[in-house]
Amino acid sequence: MAFDAPPTFSSKDAVVCRGVGKTWAAGTKRAHNALTDIDLDVAPGEFVVFLGPSGCGKSTLLYLIAGLEDATEGQLWSFGDLVETPSPQRSLIFQETSLFPWLTVWENVSFGLSIRGASKEERRTVAAEALQRVGLKAAMDKRPDELSGGMRQRVAVARALAMRPKVLLMDEPFAALDVQTRARMQDFLLDVWRDSGASVLFVTHHIDEAVALADRVVVFTSRPGRIKTIVPIDLPRPRNLFSRQAEDLRIQLTDLLRDEVDRAFAEQEALAVTA
Amino acid sequence: MAVVTRDSEASGAAAGTSRPAAVSRFYTGMVNLEWLTKAWWTILSISLFAGIWELCWFFGWADPKLLPPPHIFLGNLAEQGKFFNTATRWQVGQAMNAGPSAFESVMITVGATTARVFIGLAMASVLAIGMGVLIRYHHFFDKLVLPTITLLSPVSPIAWLPVAIFLFGIGNAPAIFMVVVALFFHMVLATVAQIDGVSPNFINVARTMGASKRQIYGRVIVPAILPGMLQVLRLNLFGAWMVVLVAESTGVGYGMGQVIMLARNTFNPSLVFFTIAVIGVLGFAFDWLLRQAQRRILYWLPDTKEKLRGL
Questions:
Q1: Which one of A87, A107, B84, B115 is separated from A142 by 20 to 30 angstroms, measured CA to CA?
Q2: Residue B67 within a domain
Q3: Closest partner residue to B300 among A90, A91, A145, by Cβ?
């Protein structure tokens, strides 16, 4: 097991994974093991980044924690409750924009409340508050297609915040944005995280992003995905990303990832030869 | 298309206090200009087609007895209109000139056929969308019903014609049944395909927000498939126009199909082409109306057509 310290189970932990694994299309010829043997504890209010090569199962783990997919091995808990179905406590934010194009910005943000049958005034108030926190209150009555990519992701964050989640799950949310927008969005996310007090689980394959954001970086091996190691990022916030320590961490993470990427490439080439 | 909408919205805003009147008039002018350009191209397109036909007649390549050019079959509207007086045709001792006037006859016939098209289309859409959603909503239903629907969907409307007559005799019912049966199976399959094409992210978002299955269908899947379904509806509108003529040509009191059959039995190519022209104009008009509706309802769709033009 890649875990260094013996895992301590606590029902207060935001997320607890024990021996979690996922085999897609289990029982068929196409079955493949995406994820195996995951033990992980995330404290309330902690910022954890999942880092790994493409196809290492880090997004799969996020979907399992969200309750959108069932684990084929092991079990997951969130604040002491077994994860079986999706819950508004655990909001997921996707890579591509997932705003409903037929709703206005504020209607999108308050979609979860409308599911619960909240009144229009209540929905508008909560939406206004959530949009205020992402700095987009002025865009309330706009349509998603009138916004830029960065703005749309901020609306998606506001939509998640409107549910007052205890865990924010983010699946490469800034991958489609340009470098400058991405840097601004990282600062923005850190503000939101500090204000909300939620735990954030953030999937990325960008080492810079991991060093900028994380309390701890979980490094994955390539398929089947396992936890290779967990690197704590003990840099004071707000972080100076040009400091010597930040550079050292980037080098350390790069080395850890390189082996995995090399291995993934070798596997793919072997597959191509046999195919 | 979207350019027109935005301009007209802009002109709407301009009509308020925020813009000077001259600017507003300029915007309105732009909108009109755009419509005019479109109308011109439509006229040019039709003129080109008619012109080639007329030329063929002029040079003697097209026999006017078999392929009468537009100036012949559109030349005597009043005379052509009389043939539409099929409403009283079956009555014994009824003279050709009795009953409604030529114009009224055309309107009655066109109205009857249009009503059959729209009632048939509406029934087929409601039934097919309902069935498509049920198929995806209940897995049990999917297994039970989808094989039969797939099996029946390639059956030609012509094959349903005797069934329509066995079941409903003659009149409006068999014609509407024909339209429904010709469209229903394809539309069910189209609905299912549309539902399968909904982005899984949309569904996952709703699930994490705690939406029930019913809420996911009502709030996410139905609005998400709406653009595709309107497209399906537009294509099936043409389908309905094709089928209704087949249905009417056999056992309905009056309708465009009856006129075509009359023209066939009396060897009157002029009347055939005249009826075809009327159907063409009607189909064009209704397609235009549906596109307007589509643009109003589906305000959120990106305009790919404009992008393709820019290539």
A1: A87
A2: no
A3: A145
